[in-house]
Design a protein that fits this description.
Layout lengths: L1 H8 L4 H12 L12 H13 L4 H8 L3 H4 L4 H7 L2 H14 L5 H18 L1 H16 L6 H21 L3 H15 L1 H35 L4 E8 L2 H10 L11 E7 L2 H14 L1 E2 L5 E2 L12 E6 L5 E8 H9 L11 H13 L1 H8 L6 H13 L2 E5 L5 E5 L4 H8 L1 H5 L1 E6 L2 E3 L11 E5 L16 H23 L1
Parallel strand pairs: 2-6
Antiparallel strand pairs: 1-2, 3-5, 4-5, 5-6, 7-8, 9-10, 9-11
Helix pairs in contact: 2-4, 3-4, 3-9, 4-7, 6-7, 7-9, 8-9, 8-18, 10-11, 10-18, 11-12
The structure holds manganese (II) ion.
Pathway: Purine metabolism
GO biological process, one term: guanosine tetraphosphate metabolic process
GO cellular component, one term: plasma membrane
């Protein structure tokens, strides 16, 4: 729909020319669904428009398959469009060539993603839009292929989108992959949840007027009050943690209140708490302390009407866009070229990207994939340094993991840890919100026993490296 508008506004513009070009070059080709090929290209361009991408990116989206599937060459794209467009298409095409199978192929794909991220975010976003449409039409492929593509989507694309703050896309990737990966579980859950969703929504519909009235009394204008049904796959993951008991999932359908500014967010939180008693330990202030992927919101869970436990998420309009589209939301500032540079810098410097990039080509592919799975696919906790900086760690992390996350020297020299002001054992299981302080002793070596309880791979690697180095040095000294 948006594509049509863009072309209407500029009938002979570059977007129009790209659409004509791609239709002509792909002529006669069809998708597995039987549709003409350009339907796919239009869908990709629509998605990129939804994410507010710039013109070169939209054009590259329309052309993203011409180098692979037609006689078109890089030089032709450069001449016909621009070097920027030709480069984008060229980089997207490089993803298509996967040398390996299985785990190695996944690792290779991930490496390519990382390298592209560091160069130009738009390449990965085109790849995301491409995969999104491919997942929506996955039913048309043979079953063997379906499963492989669905797994790749859930294990590589979804976590990566999450890391870039694209929550909506990440959830969509998982939900589209779920029925192909675990068809039985999917059907079972769909059946169990169907009725519950309905009940919850009818209930929230009753809460809504109470909420509106209270806000009006306090002169707060809500931009929007909606409910958000929990994503099916994310629900499935959570149910595993709660013995598959649906009644213990409080955010099955949650309220989402969007207001104009940050002051109003806190005011609304106060109003909700004055109406209904909050559940202890469930108030989360991601405004004062954003999640590392940029997510901001206030969360609280209260004993709502009829004493039903209900989750509320409160945020501003800006935060809402950011939460839905993450890194893509930054492209709203596309009129400011400097900002674009910032985003690329931001990604380049991101801790996670650099950690994945640290893995060199010779590293075993299994390790590489493990990192992605354990460090980002499962739940993460958010802990705080004494200076108030947030660090994210995998669920089950200990003060030693935290210390290594701050700095490898701090990890090596850690002797004691204080959590929320109290001394705890070094194998203490950290929780979100914990303030962690590490006490060190200069020149101390890490203990091999730590390997038995720590969670993060980077900490394990550092400990092994340090101990190996020390071992070598000792031997040298004996010899010398
Ligand atoms: Mn494609």
């Amino acid at each position: 729909m948006m594509l049509k508008k863009v072309i209407q506004n500029n009938p002979q513009g570059i977007v129009f020319r790209a659409l004509e070009f791609t239709k002509k070059t792909h002529v006669g080709q069809t998708r597995k669904t039987g549709e003409p090929y350009y339907i796919h290209l239009e869908a990709v361009a629509e998605t990129l428009l939804e994410w507010n991408m710039d013109e070169a990116c939209i054009v590259a989206g329309l052309l993203h398959d011409v180098l692979e599937d037609t006689e078109t060459t890089y030089e032709m794209l450069k001449k016909e469009f621009s070097i920027e467009v030709a480069d984008l298409v060229n980089q997207v095409t490089k993803f298509g060539i996967v040398k390996y199978r299985g785990v190695e192929a996944q690792a290779e794909l991930l490496r390519k993603m990382m390298l592209s991220l560091a160069k130009d975010v738009r390449v990965v976003l085109i790849k995301f839009a491409d995969r999104l449409h491919n997942m929506k039409t996955l039913g048309a492929l043979p079953p063997q292929k379906q499963k492989r593509i669905a797994l790749e989507t859930a294990e590589i694309y979804a976590p990566l989108a999450y890391r870039l703050g694209m929550h909506r896309l990440s959830g969509t990737f998982e939900d589209l992959a779920f029925p192909f990966i675990q068809p039985k579980e999917y059907k079972k859950l769909l059946k169990a949840v169907g009725q519950k969703y309905g009940e919850r929504e009818a209930y929230l519909e009753r809460v809504k007027p109470v909420l509106y009235e209270a806000l009006a009394k306090n002169n707060i204008e809500a931009v929007d009050i909606t409910f958000r049904a929990k994503r099916l796959f994310s629900l499935y993951k959570k149910l595993y943690k709660y013995d598959m008991d649906l009644d213990r999932i409080y955010d099955l359908v949650a309220f989402r209140i969007v207001v104009k500014n940050i002051e109003d967010c806190y005011a609304v939180l106060g109003i909700v708490h004055s109406l209904w008693k909050p559940l202890p330990g469930r108030i989360k202030d991601y405004i004062a302390m954003a999640k590392p992927n940029g997510y901001q919101s206030l969360h609280t869970t209260v004993f709502c009407l009829d004493n039903k436990i209900t989750e509320f998420q409160i945020r501003t309009d800006n935060m809402h866009t950011q939460a839905e589209n993450g890194i893509a939301a930054h492209w709203l500032y596309k009129t400011q070229p400097n900002r674009r540079q910032d985003i690329n810098e931001l990604i380049k410097e991101s801790e996670w990207v650099s950690r994945v990039k640290e893995f060199n080509e010779n590293e075993k592919a299994e390790n590489f994939i493990e990192i992605l799975k354990t460090d980002s696919f499962l739940n993460r906790i958010y802990v705080v340094t004494p200076q108030g900086e947030v660090r994210d760690l995998p669920y089950g992390s200990t003060p030693i993991d935290f210390a290594y996350r701050i700095h490898s020297d701090l990890g090596n020299e850690a002797v004691r840890a204080r959590v929320n002001g109290k001394i705890v054992p070094l194998n203490y299981c950290l929780e979100s919100g914990d303030i962690v302080e590490i006490m060190r002793q200069k020149g101390k070596l890490p203990s091999e026993d730590w390997l038995l309880f720590i969670k993060t791979h980077s900490a394990k690697d550092h400990i092994r490296q340090t101990l190996n180095k020390k071992g070598k040095r000792l031997k040298n000294r004996v010899r010398g």
